[in-house]
Amino acid sequence: MLDSIFSSALTDTTLTFSSAVITIGLAILMGAIISLTYMKTNANTYSQSFTLTMVVLPVIVAIIILLIGSNVARAFSLAGAFSIIRFRSAPGDPKDISYVLFTMASGLACGVGAFGYAVLFTIILCVLMFALSHFKFGAKKNQQKLLKVTIPENLSYEEAFDEVFKKFNIEYQLNKVRTTELGSLYELVYLVHLGQHVNQKEFLDAVRTRNGNLDISLNMAPTPEY
After folding, report:
1. pTM score
2. Less packed terminus of the chain by CB within 10 Å, N or C?
3. To the nearest 5 percent, what fractions of the chain are helix, strand and coil?
């Protein structure tokens, strides 16, 4: 029975109403499963527009494959029609792009009639996504951030915050020093590595105590470009 399910793809190229309904229904189900997986593994960052797109995208791909069938001329005409569509958006998260490819592959499998493989691959990849998210695969133990601190001119910037960094067990590197307010203040820029154990509020309070409540900012360090 399993062999019949997984060998049913591409055995019949005739488009019928019943096969179209089954294909579209399964594509919607696969898209919904993938979308729910994305929502569960990105609970704090997902957007409604992207989750809706992942539900609809497999259906669109499946419909395109159904309409093309084995007609080469129709495939070229559809390719020409879609070539005039341009998407203008900022580059997305690589993880989001992988989900887009995931949904397209699912829709493609449904469109060619490989229903068994569509379900199998969707389940395997969703379980994989859950496992990688649960075990925080690839997550950094330390956060790399930029600490900008303003200090008065009478405070020695070379060892101004050594005690604070040592107290919170923070690795740091002084990257930049510049004067402001006509030389009456110094602005220091540190590259710091904050471990998961560091309470950032307490750390900033300690720095604020040392610099006399002058300006402080803690930002994510820019990602190097390759």
Report:
1. 0.63
2. C
3. 55, 15, 30
